[in-house]
């Protein structure tokens, strides 16, 4: 049969219904109220391509070298043409339209791809294929074919190649599901999202769920005892707007709520009871607390989507010894740059040598780290350096890898001897003699064997990163990423996207300045390096947005690289040839980065956004924009923005908004140094460096106010995004998102939730 109804499908039917179809069928089978749907089975797709005689051409077309981006682009185009240009066999067309007719009065439906390898372990294709909402009878058949075609996007071809999946072994089913025209809707956490307690938290508002999910309305909040069903707490808010489906176009539009209903309670006792019943069933079904999107139509509760509430693994890298209270002698101390406490044997490494000698669980001791040390840093249990500050390479990379680190310990290389057993405390910034627990030393156990090294895995437990579910916040909490190797860990933090992806770390790891790299290997190779680096992060986060920032390395950092001898000598590199200034002056290297982003868009990574650093005024922004256009990126279609990190740019915000940016992001590391005239790397004036200084705060809040008036998103990606006082002031001012380092994501989520709840309580008092 070309189609199968949801109630005839179960969880084991992945081969015919695809991953999504099978899991919807299973939920329906478990008695959950999933809106009705039928599935255009995988066999239908297979028969279509076989009987039309296009299968051979199709698989030949996509059999390309996936590292060759031009070949990949033509493979996608050819495959899609073959599918879209082939006529439907009459019986299949009829069966699908008949099934649609069974929904009754020609309703809008959602058409979702459901690949047969989707959601299998190690083969997460979810999100790679298309979904179309608000589809009517006229467009139905076209959208189904487009779903089939989306099996051959560049991204999907590349991904299957990389994972070793045969293109022919993956089929695709399509779910056609009735869209629910909700009177009320919202989200439900089947266990308390902050504490994990046995309480169901429901948020609800009028109309479609988009308003609640996007945070454009403050929903009512209900807390219910999961066992007894007792309603423990109800907060009724003022709901000024709602989302509804426009009857003519099917598009979701925002509308004002009638005056009389604004302060009315959304959910009554019976509806909450039904939601609790559904919540318990879903949680029982999956065995984990779930975050469920629900809707109510004519008194019936529907479940639209369910996903686990993200949690962070609490384990620490150096499991051998995590007791931070070792009373050994303090050998050296410095900046606690990456949290966690761990013991291991010292391995001193020079600039380029001795890296192979670093084995799992060693403590790397170096003057400073360089980008080529990253593989060894991944194996290490901890890192200690003589030099560097909180924004140095060593500090950033260890935080991202979750490896405890003490930075700027001055005499570490002179004091610590190879093979000496030490305990590194990345919170306090100390290195003490011996292990954290005597027992392990007595047993003669190798700490490395137990700790297993960092391996880029879950990482050290930062203060407050308890194993609790992710709190839901209206203000987004994103994460900063600098090295692609850290992408998976950052994505697992539950962050809402990447607020800053620093490209310069990718370039520094090439060991050559961009000019030298292009001279030696060609433009194409340079562009491919950038594509590969960003793609790793965009893939790990898809479909969450990733803001890739164009190069912003100062000349003193480039000087360490091959080709660095050609860098200008500058009296103060922080005020010199860096950021957008250098890019506009050397547009060739700039446009290669922009082309890399354009290629990623073409490959389907529509979550990649561009961000320009260190702009002075609107002229810089307009010039950068015209380079985007030069390489074929349409600034009206793709999201892009700039960093606000010079006082001049903060004071020119109106003109910068007029230049067409979608967002701005505060680089408070720089904005503070330029506003206060305090070099961020100069320890003589470090006591004057204060991101919370009223002068800096005024610039931040004024920019937020102007941007809010023009619907331009605001964010912060400087180090101060993790300071509670900064979080409070910016959330109160109405910032759209915050982007801290990965170790601070969970703490910031909780702080944001606290501030938002306070704001909410104040509105109802
Ligand atoms: C900043 O200046 O705050 C920022 C995030 O950019 P960077 O630290 O890379 O200069
Ligand atoms: Mg900066």
SSE layout:
Elements (H helix, E strand, L loop, with lengths): L2 E3 L8 H16 L7 E4 L1 H10 L3 H7 L7 H16 L5 H12 L7 E7 L15 E5 L1 H13 L4 H10 L8 E7 L5 E6 L9 E8 L3 H4 L6 E6 L5 E5 L5 E5 L6 E5 L12 H18 L3 E8 L2 E9 L21 E4 L1 E4 L2 E8 L14 E4 L7 H6 L2 E4 L7 H9 L3 E3 L4 H4 L5 E5 L4 E4 L4 H6 L3 H5 L24 E2 L1 E3 L5 H5 L6 E5 L1 H5 L5 H8 L1 H19 L4 E4 L5 H5 L19 H7 L1 H16 L5 E5 L5 H13 L9 E5 L2 H5 L1 H6 L4 E4 L1 H9 L17 H16 L3 E4 L7 H10 L3 E2 L6 H20 L1
Parallel strand pairs: 16-17, 17-18, 18-19, 22-30, 23-24, 24-25, 25-26, 26-27, 27-28, 28-29, 29-30
Antiparallel strand pairs: 1-2, 2-5, 3-4, 3-5, 6-7, 6-12, 7-8, 8-9, 10-11, 12-13, 14-21, 15-19, 16-20, 20-21
Helix pairs in contact: 3-4, 4-6, 17-18, 18-21, 20-21, 27-28
This protein binds phosphoenolpyruvate and magnesium ion.
Descriptive overview:
The protein is an alpha/beta fold. It is 37% helix and 19% strand. It is built from 28 helices and 30 strands. α27 (724-733) links the parallel β29 (713-716) and β30. The longest helix has 20 residues, at 745-764. It is globular and about 75 Å long. The N and C termini lie far apart (59 Å). Phosphoenolpyruvate (PEP) binds at residues 391, 500, 502, 552, 645, 667-670, 717-718.
